[in-house]
Amino acid sequence: MTTQPSDLTNHNANSQPAKATSNMWGGRFTEATNAFVAEFTASVQFDKRMYAQDIQGSIAHATMLASVGVLTDSERDAIISGLTGILKDIEQGNFQWQIALEDVHMNIESALTARIGQTGKKLHTGRSRNDQVATDIRLYVRDSIDHILKLLNRLQHGILALAEAHTDTIMPGFTHLQSAQPVTFGHHVLAWFEMLYRDTERLIDCRRRTNCLPLGAAALAGTTYPINRQLTAQLLGFESVAENSLDAVSDRDFAIEFCAAASLIMMHLSRMSEELILWTSSQFRFVHIPDRFCTGSSIMPQKKNPDVPELVRGKSGRVFGDLISLLTLMKAQPLAYNKDNQEDKEPLFDAIDTVQGCLVAFADMIPALIPETDTLRTAAFKGFSTATDLADYLVKKGLPFRDAHEVVGKAVALGVQKNLDLSELTLPDLQQFSRLIEPDVYSILTLEGSVNARNHFGGTAPLQVSAAIGRARSRLSLATGE
Ligand code: ARG
């Protein structure tokens, strides 16, 4: 998880009070906040990462306030130039974050007043931290979605390049992790593409619901100023304005949806990881992962471990945890804003960081994979992988499928007994099970014959794989506009 207050555990509830109550809300207070409580309730340790979004939101808010006459143009300009200066300071590491100022919002607002004087105190007119934080998180999630979509795009193009190089590389296809039928390597990795394509669509869909403006809801009931929420939305690039002020400040569905989409991405990456871990083992040797993505063992000199896929497989669990944290956080919360909501950030940020890191690792590694084509071919040949082809051959000659299944079963049993593949049995051997078997049977029993025969939309035949790659490229650019 993200940082905890550094010395939180050194305090107890009876320790000295913090120096003063916050000058942002301390008017009604008669004693200073307990030092432990001040740190316990603060969020700046982890929400300061939303500084750019917070400033972006404040600039839009001030611009809107000036447009409706609540601020003068010169007040607006002072606020904007102050905020722009603060943004620069933060980015250059010249900003002192203070736990006593609780969160990113009050740290920046207080710095603004310190910088530009009394006018800084007018920025918060007609808004509350409740609608402010909801706005910041939405902007942050929107930016994160855009970044993740780019990473997904890069990974998907990597998969397509790998598929393109191996449209006719033959490998075993599995069911129950037992050799089932030969498939092409390109076809196998295009299945990964489809998983990630759905993830892309899901994120685009989630972005639309995230991209809705809560600002203007103020604390919960709206504000008495003549605000123009449409203008604020337009300035911030929001596609819509939240319809209901109570919902606007309390809704975190978009964060949950994002974590659900992130969980599916991680689940997909964990499936790819599992295959890569199996495939790189010395028992399989299906693919080679270049050394730069692997590490060794400090005790076993022969080891080269597939750390990247293993770590990604492991990290999927924490993103599922983040999703469950957010669902549990929101469960049974009464309207409208509750301080519970401050707990939304760490799981959300953790999910964002984790999925981004894993996608970077995969986007770099996938196009660098080297399939071991000879091993794949030999493995595809094992396990009577063309048995279904023989059954289909008999059906095409008039035998009902169930009878064909029986005939092939017997032929397989003979192969097992003789330790030979179906294609290695003699014609008389095969014909004893069915008179329909003729010399042409051998062409359908080859690996090429088997994959080429599955020549329909969505099938594994090299021709189909090439066509699918072409469609994948245009679907991807249509979906993402890239
Ligand atoms: N730090 C708070 C959060 O993350 C900001 C909103 C605080 N609002 C309040 N009424 N205390 O949720």
Give an overview in words.
The structure is a single chain. This protein is mainly alpha-helical and 482 residues long. The chain folds into three domains: 30-122, Fumarase C, Chain B, domain 1; 129-166 and 185-377, Fumarase C, Chain A, domain 2, CATH 1.20.200.10; 379-463, Fumarase/aspartase (C-terminal domain) (Ribonucleotide Reductase Protein R1, domain 1, Orthogonal Bundle). It is 59% helix and 4% strand. The protein contains 19 helices and six strands. It has helices spanning 35-41, 44-47, 51-67, 73-91, 104-116, 129-165, 185-210, 229-236, 245-250, 253-280, 307-330, 345-365, 373-381, 387-396, 401-418, 427-431, 441-444, 447-453, 462-480; strands at 170-175, 178-184, 212-213, 240-241, 287-288, 370-371. It has a two-stranded antiparallel ribbon with strand order 1-2. Strands 3-4 form a two-stranded parallel sheet. Strand 3, helix 8 and strand 4 form a beta-alpha-beta unit. Helix 10 runs antiparallel to helix 11 (307-330). It is elongated, with a radius of gyration of 31 Å. Residues 1-19 have low confidence and may be disordered. Bound molecules: arginine.
